[in-house]
Design goal:
It is built from 17 helices and nine strands.
């Protein structure tokens, strides 16, 4: 073979037409070959029936996750849409003189460790006209002893009502005490609450300023360091009372909170009190009042919130969330929300009442989606769509991180790096927990198990920092002057104002 022939062969093509490499599959992108319908026809998708069902389900899940995340994000940020909007959520900086008489209901069951101190704090309210009704069961000697001792310390102010109904629950106890109420406004507090000493003055002024039928005050869980889930539980309360309830009130459909809620006696008489058979009696009352056109006003000033604790154990949290979810199911089935005047309100009501179960479903679907994206071979378009919920989810997490920092600033609690780490790592586990609570609620509801699962209280919010003194209260925490004005200006000549303890909680 000559040198010329050798060079000619060497210059030939390295790959012959029949030697092209086979098609390879790209992970998470399906096949790269697209079947066509012949000359002049566009590409057609050649999926089996099972693939159509699977891919459609993944797309539907992605859309659902996105919508839920976006709506939740909108509600969480509602109060911060402008500086004026944030100011409007607060109590008045210059309260009006008292014009109402208050009756404060404090039901307690096996609460001897916390209820006495709560009653002492309530007795220090600077409002000139109020009464306190403590409600205990005839089978609860420990709590009975504590509340009677408190009544002896504050004669003429605290009245004790004995609940002998069976089976016992919170709405039954409150309905029993309602018969003894002499105030034209009735407020509800829990046995472990730490209540701001000027709260009734602020609420009274709010009723006068707005001509409201209901005023919902703020409630805040405090012991965010107790466990990984207590951190998320605390933030739930923060965004719910700080922002979301204001949106619901403006939408004229609102599930009321279980305490620090004040309703005119006239409205409570109209509604025959609370639904004794509902596990979410606060939500149910809010739905009925909304359907009847009652005016509900929400007010949140950080220094005036009622401070509480998270459930002490994970099992207690599961029971509490199960009870709430089951109560939402009862309210949904009862159908009072169908009496709302507008279609928009009814749609919003249905969405809100089913939200725990939507969130539960998304909580289960998030890890499922991650697994499918990571290990299941799907077409490029489907894979891209499945990543869409990631954006609002990351935005939600960013808002929670910012909210945790603001919570620490407002309440003078030091938030550490480990707390932020727990917040991030707890995202998916907490969603799975919400799903488990919702599933448990559905099972109990389907079996007709409507018994009241009580949440025990141990005073974690009091022992986690300095104990509140009986003669005072933890110092008020105010925002900077350009954001939040002081909510109470006391009269130096007012001898009724209690001593005010300085320092952090």
């Amino acid at each position: 073979m000559t040198i010329l022939t050798t060079l000619t062969l060497a210059a030939g093509p390295l790959l012959q037409p029949g030697d092209q490499p086979g098609t390879t599959d790209v992970p998470n992108r399906g096949t790269t070959s697209v079947p066509t319908g012949g000359s002049g026809q566009g590409a057609q998708i050649a999926w089996s029936v099972g693939e159509w069902i699977g891919y459609s389900a993944l797309i539907a899940i992605s859309v659902l996750l996105t919508l839920v995340a976006l709506s939740t994000l909108w509600w969480m940020l509602h109060a911060w849409r402008s500086r004026d909007a944030l100011r409007a959520t607060s109590f008045s900086p210059t309260p009006r003189p008292a014009a109402h008489r208050f009756t404060l209901l404090v039901p307690g069951r096996h609460e001897e460790d916390v209820m006495g101190q709560t009653l002492d704090m309530l007795a220090q309210q600077d409002h000139p006209d109020f009464e306190i009704i403590a409600i205990v069961g005839e089978d609860d000697p420990g709590t009975d002893r504590v509340v009677r001792e408190a009544a002896a310390r504050h004669p003429g102010l605290i009245k004790v009502v004995v609940d002998d109904t069976l089976p016992k629950n919170k709405p039954k106890a409150m309905n029993l005490a309602l018969k003894e109420a002499t105030g034209d406004i009735v407020g509800v507090f829990d046995a472990e609450d730490e209540v701001y000493p000027h709260l009734l003055t602020l609420v009274d002024s709010r009723f006068q300023e707005t001509d409201a039928d209901v005023v919902q005050g703020g409630v805040q869980l405090m012991n965010f360091r107790s466990s990984w889930w207590s951190l998320r539980n605390v933030l739930e309360y923060y965004f719910w009372f700080r922002s979301r309830l204001h949106f619901h009130a403006e939408s004229k459909f609102i599930p009321l909170g279980g305490n620090t809620v004040f309703v005119t006696k006239e409205r409570l008489d109209w509604s025959n009190g609370w639904d004794a058979h509902c596990l979410a009696e606060d939500c149910e009352l809010g739905v009925r009042l909304s359907a009847d056109g009652a005016k509900v006003v929400v007010a949140y000033s950080p220094e005036a919130v009622t401070r509480e604790e998270t459930p002490p154990t994970f099992a207690s949290l599961l029971k509490q969330r199960t009870r709430w979810n089951q109560g939402f199911l009862q309210v949904l089935e009862k159908g009072e929300w169908k009496k709302l005047p507008s279609r928009k309100q009814r749609f919003f009501a249905r969405y809100l009442l089913t939200m725990p179960f939507i969130q539960a479903a998304t909580g289960l679907l998030i890890p499922l989606s991650v697994v499918m994206i990571a290990f299941v071979k799907v077409p490029t378009v489907v894979a891209l769509i499945s990543f869409i919920p990631l954006a609002p989810t990351l935005m939600l997490l960013a808002v929670e991180i910012a909210g945790l920092g603001e919570f620490g600033r407002l309440y003078k609690e030091k938030v550490r790096v480990r707390d932020y780490v727990k917040l991030v790592l707890g995202l998916i586990p907490y969603q799975v927990f919400l799903a488990a609570a919702a599933v448990r609620a559905v099972i109990r509801h389907s079996r007709g198990q409507n018994g009241w699962e009580k949440t025990e209280h141990t005073g974690q919010h009091r022992t986690a920092s300095q104990q509140a003194e009986v003669v005072g209260f933890p110092s008020a925490v105010t925002e900077p002057d350009d954001v939040q004005q002081p909510v109470h200006q006391s009269d130096p000549a007012d001898d009724r104002q209690p001593a005010y303890a300085g320092g952090d909680r």
